[in-house]
Specification:
The protein is mainly alpha-helical and 99 residues long. The protein has four helices and no strands. The model has no long low-confidence stretch (mean pLDDT 86). InterPro entries: Mitochondrial_unc_protein.
């Protein structure tokens, strides 16, 4: 079959999804780092040249609190992913030892 026919009629091959420990670790670190950045308030910093009134109009309190809340959620999810990754790694190590 030609390549064009494969685009319209793809072959039905299913490959099992393998756990990628390094991917899970990077995901956890990324979530914790991004969440920490958002919670710290560095994502919304008032420039010294901007008046407080103009800053509050462009970034209302509900927006700033929402950004920090999202950061808190990302931190919590990063901690959850860290423990989940550790649990799956520990289980895989126990399976290797029992075999």
């Amino acid at each position: 079959m030609s390549n064009i026919a494969n685009v319209f009629n793809p072959q039905q091959e299913s490959k099992p999804i393998e756990d990628c420990l390094s991917c899970d670790i990077f995901n956890s670190i990324f979530l914790l780092g991004t969440g920490g950045y958002l919670v710290s308030g560095k994502a919304i910093v008032k420039d010294k040249k901007v008046l407080l009134k103009d800053f509050n109009e462009k970034n209302p309190a509900w927006w700033r609190n929402g950004i920090r809340g999202l950061g808190g959620f990302l931190i919590a999810y990063g901690v959850y992913r860290s423990f989940d990754t550790y649990g799956s790694w520990k289980t895989s190590q126990e399976k290797k030892l029992s075999n």
